[in-house]
Please model this.
Amino acid sequence: MRFLIAFGPTQEPLDPVRFLSNRSTGTIGRYLVSAARKKGHRVEAVECPKDVQTARDLEKKLKKSLPKNDVLIMAAAVCDVRPRLVSAMKLKKDKLLTVHMVRNPDILAGLARQKKKNQIFIGFGLESEKVIAGGFQKLKQKNLELIVLHQVKEKLLPFGDRPVDAAFLYKDQTVKKWKALRKEKLARILIGEAERLAGRLSGEK
Ligand code: C5P
Model:
């Protein structure tokens, strides 16, 4: 199978020296890429911010690559907003107090419009409360086959290479829960789930 895997944090520049980003480290993405390759799949890896920096560049890249792939795993931590203007000159401190933000596009929701019948979309979600209900909403909004959810609380952060609790939510409303799962194992399970879902869509037994 052909996998398109996007991961890591987008960066949204304000000026030549500053940017807005988040705490994502790309760990799960790297494990996903290696787990899929070990199973003999062809993988196109898109790492943020190394390969593409901003949400809009990531959207362009994924739109172009999606038609060549069977599975999209969207583990990128996309910044929800970006500065409206990127200054060519370093901004003066006072200007930083009133930086105007605009919404970034929802990349998955946009890609869902060009999704083919047999393609599998897998997303990730971080929620602080109403984790399962919020997850099912996202699954539907972004037309995903599967969403992996992590709960985020002050002392429960899923960033970096540490075991995580996770819930897998599926289109048929099933939920699978995992406790203290190492990310390497989570990645192997997820690649297996993508294979299972692809088999089901293509009518294999
Ligand atoms: O809506 P939320 O950001 O919680 O959804 C998370 C999922 O949507 C992740 O798979 C993330 O990569 C994707 N996403 C996106 N475009 C955005 C924000 C998130 O594709 N602007």
